[in-house]
User: Fold these one by one.
Assistant:
Number 1:
Amino acid sequence: MLPLIPIAFVSLGGLAWWKSRKPHGMTPQRKQIYEAALATLKSPEKLRTLANAFEKEGLKDEATMLRKRALLREMPPEQRERRQAIMAKAFKSKDPAKVEKIAKAFEKEGATGAAKNLRNYGKALSKSKAA
Amino acid sequence: MSKLPLPEAVSSLVERARLGDQNAMGMLSMVKQSADKGDAKAKKTLTLTMSDIEKHPSMRTGTSNFRTAQTGKFYAALRTLKQPDHAVFAGEVTKLAPRMNDVSVVAVLLADGPMFSTARLQAIAKTQGGPKEQKLFAYCVMSISPRAVNYLAKKLPPEKTPIIKLGRSVGLARQLQGIRSRRLPFSAMSPMMGWELGE
């Protein structure tokens, strides 16, 4: 029979070592940098550099979002035009549920500012309907 | 800007306080304190306030709904605001819009009305008082920074609040109309949104 106690000790030690190697994740400081980058950073290169740095720290979702934002600027003109037309149509909509759906789609693509503005419109639309 | 008659000013104050306006609540509290100290003007204002509250009881129906009968009346009036005449339209907007707390809701309602052309904006600006008030209105219309407008609202005396609110409502409505008709870029509403959409 295998000696269980030494195996348990070795396993726990291994787990502790693995955990200490694991990145520390989102700290308040990183969150601040991430939010500031979403709100103000416009250079695709800088966005990608930051995405790489976040990925190194294990923040994969944030890194993906930053990369998506970098891609927004590299879309072909036809796609940009189509997105602008969708957005203009969303701001014409009288259906808050539709507005929210479009806001979510834009958010998924990394367009957090457009999604935020659209959501504000959707909220105002709901309130105006309720009034 | 011309001052409102006292009963109307009191009514507006009560309405704002009910909608959660901290300044209005503070002013009502100050009126009560001054009245308790024996100030004759404050006593008169307090009597008018109590009478207004009795005449127009709050119609709150739950925590998420802060509408009153009066609020509903204003919204209904705003919704039907489609005066083709600039001066009449300006007068109506000036009368109705600043009394509402939620500028974005007023903006959505106004955006469905007639287009805010330069002539229309100038007509509204003229109803706001002297050159300073007109400039303040124009600034609030053109500003794309809600923070800057909120800062102004905090720093300027409360008499200017209606101009700021009207300017913000009209400004947002104008942005919405511009975006809908593609006459204005998305960056006119938010530079970040414009960037994200490839402008």
Number 2:
Amino acid sequence: MKNPKEMSPVIKRLSRLPLARFDFDLTDSAAQVATQTAGSAINGGVHQIDLSGLVKDARSASTAAAALAPTQTFSTLSEGQTIVGGAGLNVIRITGDVTLKTSLNITGSASSTFVFQLRSSTADGHDVLSLMA
Amino acid sequence: MTMNLSGGVLADSILWNLNGLGGGVDIQAMAEGQTVFGTFLAPDRDILSDHGIVDGRLIGGGSGNLLNVHSGSEITAPSTVPDGGSTLALLGAALLGLTGLKRRFAV
């Protein structure tokens, strides 16, 4: 891709993917995509494939994880909080929104599995989980 | 913001699950050396990574929502965890399909 205009059909194709859409910032990426040098080649291409099975798997996994009984419940997570889990499955239910700007500590063992269930009723368009500086 | 794992906890053993419709995930403005860990699974919600450094996977953007990976983001799939028993059965089944999704969607 040598210039942003050539990105347009690519973005259109990508936007047809069933689960995800790539949002390119062309003002950022233009310089990078324009750096192809003489003699070099761009291989590959854009492939449109049926991902409905994977989409179904993702939704099924999410539904199954959401149905697990919690082992710990919090209204939110706090800055610097330590979540301590035991061996095996740890289901951490969080009923409200989470915004963290410094740190979160998760401790357990190599056999620990943590499933964080974010159950806030915050509507689409706002963030349930914000991890930022 | 950074996450600290201790005691041997693995990134591949952490699942952040946001089921159904609702508010999304925002990971941004992380500095050098900061990392968040785990699979962020929000099949029907927005996920935004803008200068996000993730040792894990981002899976989302369905139902008309967006999976946005902006400049400066680093999304690295963690090493696969051997399935040590029934407690990992759920996560293992989930990640089987999700690994494929990551390869297609995560940049």
Number 3:
Amino acid sequence: MPASYDTVIVDYGMGNLLSVEKAVSAVGGCPLISADPETVLNAERLILPGVGAFGDAMRNLAQNGLDDAVRKAVHAGKPLLGLCLGLQLLFSHSEEFGSHEGLGLIPGLVRRFDDSVLRVPHVGWNQIESVRPDPLLKEIPDGSYFYFVHSFFVEPDRPEDVLTWTSYGRSFCSIACRGKVWGAQFHPEKSQEMGKRLLRNFLAVK
Amino acid sequence: MLAKRIIPCLDVRDGRVVKGTHFVNLVDAGDPVETAARYDSEGADELVFLDITASSDRRDIVAKMVRAVADRIFIPFTVGGGLRTIEDIQAILRAGADKVSLNTSAVENPNLIVEASKYFGSQCIIVAIDARRVKNWNPEEPKWEVTTHGGRMTQALEAVAWAEEAASLGAGEILLTSMDCDGTQSGYDNLLNARISERVKIPVIASGGCGTLQHIADAFTEGKASAALAASIFHFGYHTIAEAKRFLQERGIPVRLTQ
């Protein structure tokens, strides 16, 4: 029997999963929130949401065996979209409150904005500029606004893993992409029409 | 570029939007969910709900409203009013709010800011400050004191110092209301906004006194605010959010335009 859901939202006890679930439903998806590694492993596609601290998130993921399940699903070719902290978790390493290992799906580092020159957290609507066309960005023009709220940003090792840039004091990577793994630093589920388009595009990825 | 935010504020009592002057003389201004959905579609950048429900089952009333709002809107929204414990905050966030705002409870127990920001992340903890100019102080060099309980109590706390402390304890944003200007529609207290914006490294949301589109522009240019909160100007249909955005854009202030 085919599953009654097409998108698994990974629940590791952090963040507002409800709003992600609602946004996915609003664009025609059938989401399931799950903390079960087996369900994650067998998902058609995954969304890894999250707000909060990097270290706690990795600990929660590891406790439930969700870290391995996510890695295996990605290696099996399942599309994955990380959101906010979920993007940062895809990286190798974070310097948040000491040093932490991430999922290592995209090589690179998570760093903190310099609050000696900027207001941190970076809160509000900011624009994205893409470096190349991508299925995730269909009908999303350069300069579109998305809702951000974060103090840390990602720095991919390889320039080709950067899909969009956003400017806040400096340019930082606002969408990272490697194969079928995407991560957005902003919250599409809180970014009104443009956010819905991005989620719709992700649901269309096979 | 990071856009300046326009945030309609909905004062809610017993599940209805109300509007008054200096927190009194309340007038009914509509259903919160319908109002929220309208602002969302008109291009509001965020919404703030301040709950002033006094009844004993307030927690259920508020959670129900938050769930209904979360079902309808796809922009961030904040809920404040009477949140005293980690459990209170959790209930609101679980119901679907993105941020909470703490006011009286943060003054009485600053450790709540520390715990809440550690537990839920600074990004969802707003500290709301209701500030009032100290009477008979030099108007050239004004001083502001912190009030609580909806402006009814004055604390022995200087507003700029309290904002700095709140930021250092883990607040992600400051929602700064001038009690002198609130409800007057005569403009924000931009001296206050600028003083605190210059002293903290977190975003400051200017609040209290908005009556015209020029007031919103002034909050950004003179008040150096990251966001402007307004109620009457939008609730009673004097202006739409879209008009406000166009007005600001024509004056070179970065805003998110929709459609």
